[in-house]
Amino acid sequence: MNKKNHPNRNQAKVKRYTVKEPAELLPFLLKSISNLSRNAVKSLLTRRQVSVNDRVVTAHNFLLQPGQTVSIGNNRASEETSMVGLAILHEDEDIIVIRKEAGLLSIASSQENELTAYRQLMAHVRTQNPKSRIFVVHRLDRDTSGVMMFAKSKDVQQKLQNSWQDIVRERTYIALVEGVVKKPEGTISSWLKESKTLKMYSSPYPNDGQHAVTHYKVIQASQGFSLLEVHLETGRKNQIRVHMQDIGHPVVGDKKYGAKTKAIGRLGLHARVLAFLHPATGELLRFETDIPRAFLGPLRGAK
């Protein structure tokens, strides 16, 4: 390859089309890009590879006006970098799936007024339609990282929440916990309740509270820490954190539930996999993220 073409390589990948007459975005793209199938063009929209006047657009029916420029290619960097503590993994007309970093609130409480995943995604969908909204389906604690999903309509939110146990096929977490867990795998079952100080705990009485079931498997262990793969059978508030404390191995950095160490400067909990049936199409979607590098630091030298 000729070296002098190197700096312009990314620019060459971006294709631009000028809109001549009013049209919806998907039909315009199908007409403009004759060498791609309908599904391939839809995929460009889903992967956020299409911009109108340098603003990312994913809606198939976005109305184009004469004089606008439609760009296709590596043109999403500007909006992605403006989002703090999250990245969009998937977006369509019904849902948004993100990877949240530790430290970002999913949604603010009535007492809090700070940047949240919810607020940023609301601003994102309103760049395409000022009336658009997003709706909370489930939450991750502020200090938990990983995959989470939002709905783009009240109907989709209700369908997901009402059928959560049937729609969600896999929820896998990675937990870095204190101490060496002796049993290579196990199941923890208890009835969870919330105290007056808003702390969850396992009730000593059967049928007293919400039933919670957690399955775990040891991936790796060292002198003072264990890395666990955790599968949720139920999704209760702080479930993993309470259950790890119950077996005497609190999550690293989780002072609220008995941890004594701050080995990685954050909570050692990451929502690694979320797999579910799409609420509109029924298609099985699966999103997997990497184990945070920080979780592996305390395990160096482990067998």
Automatic annotation (TrEMBL):
EC number(s) on file: 5.4.99.-
Domain RNA-binding S4: 24-82
GO biological process per UniProt: enzyme-directed rRNA pseudouridine synthesis
Superkingdom classification of source: Bacteria
Catalysed reaction, written as an equation: a uridine in RNA = a pseudouridine in RNA
InterPro entries: PsdUridine_synth_cat_dom_sf, PsdUridine_synth_RluA-like_CS, PsdUridine_synth_RluC/D, PsdUridine_synth_RsuA/RluA, RluA_PseudoU_synthase, S4_RNA-bd, S4_RNA-bd_sf
UniProt KW keywords: Isomerase, RNA-binding
CDD domains in UniProt: PseudoU_synth_RluA_like, S4
A GO MF term: rRNA pseudouridine synthase activity
Pfam families registered for this protein in UniProt: PseudoU_synth_2 (PF00849)
Active site: residue positions: 141
Function as written in the Swiss-Prot or TrEMBL entry: Responsible for synthesis of pseudouridine from uracil.
Membership in a protein family: Belongs to the pseudouridine synthase RluA family.
The protein's name: Pseudouridine synthase
Source organism (scientific name): Aneurinibacillus tyrosinisolvens
Organism lineage: Bacteria, Bacillati, Bacillota, Bacilli, Bacillales
